[in-house]
C-alpha cells in the first residue's frame, strides 16, 4: 500500500450541503489513477488551520505516483475565476503527496509549523518509493 495525503480541496467540495460526500468524491477522483486499498479517511477538526485533509491508500505505488503528478499543484478554480486573470492563491491549488502511513500525524504537525511559501513536498515517501 502507498498512502497519499490530500489537502486544499475545491471550495465547492467543502460546502456544508455536500461535505458528507467528500470521501466518495475523493474516491471517485483517485480511482481514475488506480485501485485504492481502502476508502479514503477524511480528517478535520484538530488540524483546522490546515483545513480538511484526507488520506487514501493505493494498492500500487505507480498509481499513487500518477495521482500525485496529476493533482499536486492543480489550480481547481472555475474557468470564470481563471479567466478573470487573478493568479491562484496557495489555497486554490490542490495539494497531494505520498506519505509514510505511520508518519501522517507528524507530517500534519510539520505542515502546521512550516513557514509560509515553502514547498510541502519533499522527503515524504511510502516504503519503497523512489
Describe this structure in words.
This protein has 130 residues and is α+β, with helices and mostly antiparallel strands. The chain contains four helices and four strands. The chain is 27% helix and 15% strand. A four-stranded antiparallel β-sheet has the order 2-3-1-4, covered by helices on one side. The model is unreliable at 116-130 (pLDDT under 50).
Brief write-up:
Helix content is 27%, strand content 15%.
Question: What topology does this entry show?
Answer:
Layout: E1 2-7, H1 22-30, E2 41-43, E3 53-58, H2 61-71, H3 79-83, E4 95-99, H4 104-113
Antiparallel strand pairs: 1-3, 1-4, 2-3
Please trace the helix and strand order, writing H or E for each element: EHEEHHEH
State the helix count.
4
Poorly predicted parts: 116-130
Shape: globular
Say how many strands there are: 4
The average pLDDT is: 80
As a whole number of angstroms, the C-alpha radius of gyration is: 14 Å
Main sheet: strand order: 2-3-1-4
Describe the largest sheet: 4 strands, antiparallel
**Helix-residue proportion:** 25-40%
Q: In what range is the share of β-strand residues?
A: 15-25%
How does the helix and strand content classify structurally? alpha+beta
How far apart are the first and last residues' alpha carbons, in Å? 14 Å
